[in-house]
């Protein structure tokens, strides 16, 4: 009887250890594709709030899928902290390669660096370490498409690559790398 109890206890100990190891596994990021769109307009509402219009643009997945960004709207708040972090809320409407609609929504943060204001005023590209300290978003997607239905189950990480406000000489641009977490 004692041997059976030891085996049962060992089994539960092993199961608990296995579950604990699995639960603490750090997810790995897998590059899924890119999202890029034009910034059509940037408007200050007051010194802490802005709105922006985006589109057209494109989303491209590494597996060959793609879609066209029709329109996006952004609502931003400047957080009153040392870095004046920008809190983003963006919604986009896309048409995918299989003629299905895709709704994309994200919330994010841009942490400006010392070159932010200078680069904005000169309509220069803002990138990591030249205008932007950090820029990440959490992206959710919804569609009825069979081909792209797997996106309904994911929460993507958007890593900002490039931002440029529009000027009279050039269109504005917003560009992201898209990642999914695997664990």
Detailed description of the structure:
The chain has 183 residues and is an alpha+beta fold. Helices cover 15% and strands 57% of the residues. The protein contains two helices and nine strands; from the N terminus they run H-E-E-E-E-E-H-E-E-E-E. A hairpin with a 7-residue loop joins strand 8 and strand 9 (172-182). The model has no long low-confidence stretch (mean pLDDT 88).
Structure summarized in a few sentences:
The protein is α+β, with helices and mostly antiparallel strands and 183 residues long.
What would the keywords be for this entry?
183 residues; eight-stranded antiparallel barrel; globular; alpha+beta
Separation of the first and last Cα atoms:
40 Å
Strand content: over 45%
Tell the overall outline. globular
Overall average pLDDT = 88
Placed side by side, the strands forming the largest sheet appear as 1-2-3-4-5-7-8-9
Largest sheet: 8 strands, antiparallel, barrel
Structural class: alpha+beta
DSSP summary: helix tally:
2
């Amino acid at each position: 009887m004692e041997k059976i109890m030891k085996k049962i206890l060992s089994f539960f100990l092993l199961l608990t250890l296995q579950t604990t190891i699995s639960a603490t596994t750090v997810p790995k990021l897998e590059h899924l594709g890119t999202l890029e769109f034009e910034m059509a307009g940037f408007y200050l509402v007051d010194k802490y709030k802005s709105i922006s219009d985006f589109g057209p643009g494109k989303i491209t997945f590494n597996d060959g899928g793609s879609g066209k960004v029709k329109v996006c709207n952004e609502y931003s708040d400047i957080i009153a902290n040392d870095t004046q972090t920008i809190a983003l809320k963006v919604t986009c409407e896309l048409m995918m390669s299989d003629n299905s609609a895709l709704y994309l929504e994200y919330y994010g943060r841009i942490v400006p660096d010392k070159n932010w204001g200078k680069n904005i005023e000169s309509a220069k590209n803002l990138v990591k370490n030249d205008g932007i300290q950090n820029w990440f978003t959490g992206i959710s997607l919804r569609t009825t498409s069979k081909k792209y239905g797997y996106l309904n189950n994911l929460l993507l990480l958007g890593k900002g690559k490039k931002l440029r406000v529009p000027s009279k000489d050039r269109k504005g641009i917003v560009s992201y790398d898209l990642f999914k977490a695997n664990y």
